[in-house]
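Let's practice the habit of predicting before peeking. Look at the sequence and jot down your guess about where helices and strands might fall. Then scroll down.
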Amino acid sequence: MKYIDQRLSRQHTMQDWLIRGGTLLEPVSGSSRCADIYIERGRIAAIGRNLEVAGVQELDARKRFVSPGWMDMHVHLREPGFEHKETIETGCRAAAFGGFTAVACQPNTKPPVDSIEVVQAIRKRAAGLPVDVYPIACVSKGRAGAELAPFAELAASGAVAFSDDGSPVQNGSLMRRALEYAAMLDRPIINHLEDMTMGTKGHMNEGTVSTRLGIVPVPALSEESMLARDLLLTEHAGGCLHVPHISTAASVDLVRQAKAKGINVTAEVCTHHFALTDEAVEESGFSTATKMHPPLRTASDVEGIKRGLRDGTIDAICTDHAPHASFEKDVEFTRAPFGITGLETAWGLTGRHIVAEGVLSVAAAVFKLCVAPRRILRIPVPEIREGAPANLTVFDATTEWIFGTRHIRSKSSNTPFIGTAMTGKAWAVYNNGQLVSNA
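Done guessing? Here is the structure:
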């Protein structure tokens, strides 16, 4: 059998495959059935038991699930401008290893994604890869927070949402107008939640650990106060607010209350925010791989996040995959940039901390990795049906494995999870006529 392994093809050469014996999982209904899938010229030609197709490559999916392909709606591909950290191709390589067939990339590039030309350049660079790339464009020109970017033009060129990621929209009037304009285009506004008048020079969560270590902290209140403002603006102006990388229990409560009032808000959580606490900074000996923004919070915040996942307050699971070169991270903790990689470890951490602990079923977890991100971004959800384009993830929820450097497909390796036990593994993805296997 011929596999594409550790590299992604830019050729749109359709590969015919027979995926044998998998449990087909429908994350919307939660239903499942055992069947083979025959893929011919990039489309699902047949679904059934004991299919016989002569001369076609086979992928053994027995004791594994096959679901519609997953999407990470919050990644940094760094291109253009920071290709020493990551490129579109290497980021998609990491995504495929993690089980994702689609990603939405953030606009804090150089130049930023505030023009048609940059949106089109990203889409062109991603064309032909087995991982679909959806650009998120800037809220403001140059991410400077002063003047709205050309929303209509950016949406027409392929932008699926608007965000000044990493640079919060501090101006309330600008945020209100952004919500109003984006509503006319049916696009969500995604605001990095941080009140820049609080904790702008902080490096980790404000709490007993930061006090003990003597590190300038980032207070949880900086996230929660900005979120409260944005929820009030959304209630007044309309539009759709999407809350990125929610990290505190109080923030989860604010979103829960807003949804109960009928405010149009959705939320995502990063895997590291339910897998680690701020204790990891001390336990790791100040490893800069534990430094991210928002920072790792407390154990009570982790429990609040899990409650939010369980009751539906938190809609989607993502990674905020934020690669940095080793020379940038191999410095003192307080001098290092924020961010960790996450695409390769997303499912292993979800399986270990969410599925295995009974927070969510396998189907419910896959819903938050597959269906919810696309619904939030107004992207069609793949279907497993005859005649549909084949867009699939093959995975299990029980394989125990240790994540190591040999599993890294990203150009960068700034992750705190090297040597960490994972539960559940993504074995292969198929999309755009190509199969990428991790076997």
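How did you do? The CA atoms of residues 231 and 258 lie 7 Å apart.
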